[in-house]
Amino acid sequence: MANLTISNRSAADTAADALVLAIVAADQTGDGTAALAPGHDLPRKTVSHLTSVIADLELAGKVGEVTSLAAVPDVSARLVVLAGIGELKTDSTPDATALEDVRKGVGAAVRSLGKKQQVAVVVPGTSVELVSAVADGAALGAYAVSKAGATSTDAVESVTLVGPADSASRKAVKRAAAIGEAVAYTRDLVNLPPNLLYPETFVDSLAERIKGTKVKLKSYDMKALRAGGFGGTVGVGQGSVNDPRIAVLSYAPSRPKASIAFVGKGITFDSGGLCIKPANGMLTMKCDMAGAAAVAGAVLAIAELGLPIAVTGYLGLAENMPSATAQRPSDVVTMRGGKTVEVLNTDAEGRMVLGDCIALASESTPDAIVDVATLTGAQVVALANTAAVMGNDDAFRTRVLEAASTVGEAMWPMPLPKELRPTLESINADIAHKGGAEGGMLTAGIFLSEFVGKGIPWSHLDIAGPAFNDKAPTGYWPKGGTGFGVRTLVGLAESYA
Which of these, 384, 182, 444, 464, lies nearest to 295 by C-alpha position? Predict the structure, then answer.
């Protein structure tokens, strides 16, 4: 994770391997060419040179457009990078869309500078909202994928924002640094190969990570899971040589203003179990623990920021494998809390560990519960890289969506239709764990709702699409784990603070 600071020193005099300058889109300038965004305070000779280059190269200033220039006059930095940030209006407060464009544009530029040690980024304005967006983009873009757990040598070491260095801006930069570090940890977990990350080593990583923080860790091994009635988690994990775990991360400040429970699906590898996936379907299944990783990252960030909110993260960790001991279709298991479930398809395993964890979370009667999971292929078909949000309380679901919009994570509200509940009826158990082919994303949510304690507001985030990027890097997203969900969970906690 790059060291993130802010300085009010002039952009031209800032010593760095690269200086990132924002340019606004051609449509914003009105004359068909892109232009330097405000806030740079560069010498006239430098501005004239850059304006000519922008025109000669016919730069559009679109989001994600990155252009590197050497030997720019009167600038201390060895390299100047022009980062397109879209149609940022300079005469009004930027809205959520414009701020996300800034994040993506800055993120793309910083991501392109992975071999550089010191990078400076000019804030295209003076508002704290712009400082925050630039800081977010820089922190997220500075990440580099590690090779099988080894420390990457391709990541930017430090990023200096050039802009207003008042107390509000410094606080925004500190926040971005904490969240950037949490997202980087989440991405690292998701990117680890499954022979290195399985339930036991996931817990080991958490134990190491919380050292020196105010976060506490409790874990349930197979013996404790059996004794505690966590039949869903035991059933999913019993086919693997790597036993399942439930990890509980807790942060409890004095006199908290609210208590929130986060629940994360942590299937460290999903073969489909006895209902085995086709080979191509397993290629990205190391990412099936992205929900648990996001919960871990969010709890760590909330503790680092010292928010006055009590947060407990419940991570359901298992490896779904086929073997002589694996659970079978038609098995009936007893979940935490006593509800019996008929298993119809062993490749719909995530909802089983989530059901156990939601029931466990409900026992402490938090003010709200949010679960995060790479749960259904139906979500990807319906919404691609936009996460789905369901829940039992419209006001709380709206609160989650507002938090997502504020931080720039794309989410969309989805219903839990009562008419689909009969598809989960079973003659052998209290409920079947899977419905028919129609509305698979929604019936999964309906199933999970059965384990929420009475009267507790709850939302379910299906992040199957945005959790893992198997295409080319874009904006502040690298290839591989994206860390999606961390920022929304932190933003939700901040809404209570």
Answer: 182
Give the alpha-carbon dihedral of 131, 132, 137, 140, to 10 degrees: 140
pLDDT in tens, 440-452: 999 999 999 999 9
Contact 233, 352 (CB under 8 A): yes
∠ CA(48), CA(49), CA(54), 5° rounding?
100
Q: How many CB atoms lie within 10 A of CB 89?
A: 11
Per cent of the chain over pLDDT 90 is 92
Contacts of 334 (CB under 8 A, 6+ apart): 229, 231, 340, 341
Domain that holds residue 463: 197-496
- 267 and 387 share a domain? yes
With respect to residue 191, please indicate whether it lies within any of the assigned structural domains.
Answer: no
Question: Are 425 and 288 within one domain?
Answer: yes
376 with 476, same domain: the answer is: yes
- Residue ending a domain, among 120, 150, 183, is 183
Q: Determine the Cα–Cα distance for residues 275 and 139; give it in Å rounded to an integer.
A: 41
Q: Which amino acid is at 25?
A: A
In this structure, the answer to whether residues 135 and 213 fall within a common structural domain is no
Res 145: pLDDT: 85
DSSP 31-69: SSS-EEPTT----HHHHHHHHHHHHHTT----TT-EEEE
Domain count, the chain: 2
Q: Which active-site residues does the annotation give?
A: 277, 351
Strands 468-469 and 411-413: unpaired
Q: 46 vs 83, 118, 163, 255, CA distance in Å?
A: 16, 21, 18, 54
User: Shortest CA distance to 14 belongs to which of 126, 93, 174, 123?
Assistant: 123
Of the listed ranges 151-160, 421-430, 448-457, 467-476, the one predicted with least confidence: 151-160
Q: Are residues 287 and 312 in the same domain?
A: yes
